Amino acid sequence: MSGGGRHRRRLRIGLPVAAAGVAAAVAGALLTSSAGAASAQPNPPAVPSTGSASPAELEQRVLGAAAHEDTAGVSSPKSSYSSSPTVDAKIIGGTTTTITSAPWMAQLWYQDEANGVYFFCGGTVVSPTKILTAAHCVQGYNWKAYGAVVTGATQLPDADLNGGTATAVHRQWNHPSYSSRTIDNDIAVLTLAQPVKATPIRMATSTETAAYTAGTTAKVYGWGRTSSTDQNISQTLKTASLPIQSDATCGAYYGADFVKGHMVCAGKPASGSDSGTTTACNGDSGGPLIVNNRIVGVVSWGVQDCVAKGAYSVFAKVRTYVGATYPRVDDTNLSGDHRADLWVRNASTKTSYEKDSLGTSFGGRESWGNWGAYNVVLQNDLNRDGYQDLLVRRSSDGDVFWKHWVPVSGSWATTKVADNWKTRTRIVIPGDVTGDYLPDMLSVDSAGKLWLYPGKGNGTFASRVQVGSGTGWSQYDVLVGHGDFSGDGRADLIVRTRSNGAVYVYKGTGSASAPFSSRVKVRTWSTSTYNKVATVGDVTGDGRADLLARTPGGTLYLYKGTGKATSEIFATRISVGTDFKQYDIFA
Questions:
Q1: Which of 182, 287, 355, 492 is the most buried (most CB within 10 A)?
Q2: Catalytic: 186?
Q3: The pairing of beta strand 294-301 with beta strand 202-203
Q4: Which of these is catalytic: 186, 356, 492, 546?
């Protein structure tokens, strides 16, 4: 964006070069208190260190990257586009703004001195440990070893971080179908080693169509180039308003390189020069396009030098990718990778075990000792700190406790969150069902009523709300959920009718007042088919929630999720072991 902040360092960043595209509480029932007597409860093993770089090293990475120039996601031109302008993934025009107005903005700095790679991209905080950005800023790079993410700063670093905080990256994910040649499926998520204080912003949901209507005003944010005639980027955060364009308009200019459904373009046609042009440019790559306080796009590509006559800025269409991206926002697991793990307890010895996912199987079990005091154990991340938590119910009195890792003390903390839930027939933590990106809790009482407890993101809950007005939830002998089964970026429930074994999915709506839509039948499984069903999240790591089901004989099957809320909701089952009859709890 031109104007505003002073120009500085020549840092060519963030957009790929490609010929096609530049590329609370219910009295007597729910409460939060210190564990007290719960301190004698068993805890999980200590969580290994993430091996994060020190604050000094992170700052060095940032300042080192800022002193160099390079380009992220370089790819070769496509011969099929030789007759069109060279495109280069790249805000010219617009005005300066502050981090107070856009607290979710993040700076992504990368410095690999050994290989001489230095670059900068934009990003967006979508959860305390999650940064949404472009795949071309992530694929092929080792962000844990060489990267750092700066939040809380209006200015880019100079002699220091200008009030920002540098945080290490713990792991990275980019869309598995990202193409560096076509800059298609250009979306990624970085998981930070610790939560940041920046206020997150939500992604567009799969059903949000109005935000993409041609003429809708969107805002793009970044520190990118401010002129087409030099490589200087803005020292100060900038923003610009861009009208959304129709797919037909974008396709008419870019041809087949604009992939309808995967991409969205915005802005008025560029004038051919800085004058009269407002557009994203180099250095804005990976940053957000915002409509009504939702991210609808991620800066992906555009024409080289940003202002070629008639050109538009192109963004990854978040609505399309939220089904794959949301599981990465809610992918905390026992082993710390992108795959959900299994927790089991031996019925006779009460010894519990962790079994880490290997994708389509589980590794050897790791003993956690005796957990005989509980009859419910659920994996979750109630405080969104990137560490796997557990919610447990004590058999003796029905009290429910939240166990969470405290990195500062290097120990587990136990907090009571519910009192005397002996008669609750089901307790589920499916993820975010209210649409605020914070994990929620559900429970079924003895009368068959389903209650929603909206999470506050800190292990506490707001006052409960009944889901619907009926009492029919006792008809189900299975009621589980952990993640998104329908591929729309919302948490769902899987249930089985006790009388006839009919299996249904209740799709999440993202609304606290009516969190689930009408059920859809997807299977028929009697108790003689499966006597235990568990959902722990995305076991395979493909971005879809999966399901585990055990036969009475002890064979455990993995049903990979397909993202379809139909009879095709699961792929063909895969056996992951035949010795699971010994376990009474699967979490």
A1: 287
A2: yes
A3: parallel
A4: 186
Q: How far apart are CA 349 and CA 554, in angstroms?
A: 17
State the burial class of residue 100 (Cβ atoms within 10 Å of its Cβ: 0-12, 13-18, 19+): exposed
Q: How many CB atoms lie within 10 A of CB 367?
A: 11
Radius of gyration of the chain (CA): 25
Q: Is-catalytic flag, 175? A: no
Residues 6+ apart with CB under 8 A from 369: 42, 351, 352
**Among 2, 228, 234, 285, the one annotated catalytic:** 285
DSSP 215: T
Residues 6+ apart with CB under 8 A from 2: 92, 93, 94, 226, 227, 274
What separation, in Å, do the N-terminal and C-terminal C-alpha atoms of the chain show?
Answer: 50
Residue 140: which of 182, 178, 106, 185 has the closest Cα? 178
Rounded Cα–Cα distance for residues 186 and 89 (Å): 11
The Cβ of residue 397 has, within 10 Å, a number of other Cβ atoms equal to: 11
Per-residue pLDDT of 58-77, as tens digits, reads: 999 999 988 875 545 433 22
Catalytic position from the list 75, 88, 112, 136: 136
pTM score, whole prediction: 0.84
The CA dihedral of 524, 527, 528, 529, to the nearest 10 degrees, is 40
**Average confidence score pLDDT of the chain:** 85
Q: Where are the alpha helices (DSSP H) in 491-540?
A: none
The pair of three-digit structure tokens given for residue 48, joined into one six-digit string: 């290994």
Percentage of the chain lying above the pLDDT 70 cut: 84
Report yes or no: 85 and 303 within 8 Å, Cβ to Cβ: yes
β-pair partners for 66: none
User: Taking a C-beta distance cutoff of 8 angstroms, is the pair 207, 517 a contact?
Assistant: no
